[in-house]
Write a structure and sequence with these properties.
This is Metal-dependent hydrolase. Keywords: Membrane, Transmembrane, Transmembrane helix. The chain is mainly α. 56% of the residues lie in helices and 5% in strands.
Length: 161
């Protein structure tokens, strides 16, 4: 699962910057990482074989979890699990992680050259795919790991000095 690991490592880079910029405690950093993994909840439904169907005669599909609207819904659900005083910060940091996931997915190689409608429900526009890597490419892990380690070292030095 190089794709998921890359998403989490890059989210660490963005999350560390977000936590520093918003001047929030470091305990919120894992929240960003969970947000980065959340859009791939759709892949779990594929494994379970419940991607589409009907419930009480109403059709449903889980493809929307991997969109901007899905990130907002999953961030809201995640924020509800936090203490009331931390929900707003938790929501925005979960959303930050989820949006970083969607941005990275814009660079995935697509046969037709366009990415899925990640802006749903705001827009049905299909953005052009950058076609930089496939989700199974292993070279993304060392790149993401190097960035994450550089940020970790900078954070440790800043805390020590």
């Amino acid at each position: 699962m190089p794709d998921l690991l890359t998403h989490v490592l890059i989210a660490y880079v963005f999350g560390a910057a977000a936590v520093w910029w918003a001047d929030t405690p470091d305990r919120y950093l894992p929240v960003v990482l969970v947000g980065a993994a959340a859009p791939d909840a759709m892949k779990a439904t594929v494994l379970l074989g419940v991607t589409t169907g009907t419930a009480f005669g109403v059709p449903y599909s889980f493809w929307g979890l991997h969109t901007l609207g899905g990130v907002a819904v999953l961030s809201g659900i995640g924020a509800v699990t936090l203490a009331a005083s931390e929900r707003r910060t938790g929501f925005w940091l979960l959303a930050c992680g989820g949006v970083s996931h969607l941005v990275l997915d814009l660079f995935v190689l697509r046969v037709d050259g366009v990415a899925p409608p990640y802006l749903f429900p705001v827009s049905g526009w299909l953005p052009p795919a950058a076609n930089l890597y496939t989700s199974t490419d292993l070279w993304t892990i060392p790149v993401a790991l190097a960035l994450a380690l550089a940020v970790l070292v900078m954070r440790r030095r800043a805390a020590a000095g």
